[in-house]
Write a structure and sequence with these properties.
This protein is mostly helical. It contains five helices and no strands. The N and C termini lie far apart (85 Å).
Length: 162
């Protein structure tokens, strides 16, 4: 049991990599589900769909993505707290949020024997935020195409009026 309280660097990296893989897997499942739900909603959009409804679709999607990231950071925080690496769950979650977002200016730190987890947590944030960013670009591309079609329709209508 001593290897859990005072791990060597290889063990630290293995533990961190295992949690990183779990986080990436959860992100993949979550982002696929969110994208699928957005696509289903998007198929219901017509030229008569009110703008508030489109904005609500975007807001719900962004909220779901944020909740996904909060869940992923919880996946990191729970083991840190349960294993007393950072004894308080609140401090553990705070530390993970600081590392995951790569802000890194908090006053909570990992003990020296676990300090390699910090950069691995940051790597998971970089991976998942990049993935989330690509999904948001795709969604905004759909909105841009819709707006372009709407503008063309309006122009055709304007050209028809004498």
């Amino acid at each position: 049991m001593d290897h859990l309280s005072n791990p060597n660097p290889v063990f630290e990296i293995l533990v961190g990599t295992l949690i990183l893989i779990v986080v990436i897997f959860v992100h993949g499942v979550g982002i696929r589900s969110i994208s699928r739900q957005f696509s289903k909603s998007w198929t219901q959009v017509t030229s008569g769909t009110p703008h508030w409804r489109l904005n609500m679709m975007l807001a719900v999607t962004v909220a779901a993505l944020a909740l996904l990231h909060f869940a992923e950071t919880l996946i990191w925080a729970v083991p840190l707290s349960v294993r007393d690496i950072i004894p308080s769950m609140r401090d553990s979650y705070y530390y993970v949020l600081e590392s995951y977002t790569t802000l890194g200016e908090g006053n909570v730190a990992l003990p020296a024997r676990w300090r390699l987890l910090g950069p691995i947590i940051a790597m998971s944030g970089l991976f998942t935020f990049g993935w989330t960013g690509s999904v948001l670009v795709s969604i905004m591309t759909d909105f841009g195409k819709f707006d372009t079609l709407q503008a063309r329709r309006e122009r055709v209508e304007e050209d028809k009026t004498p």
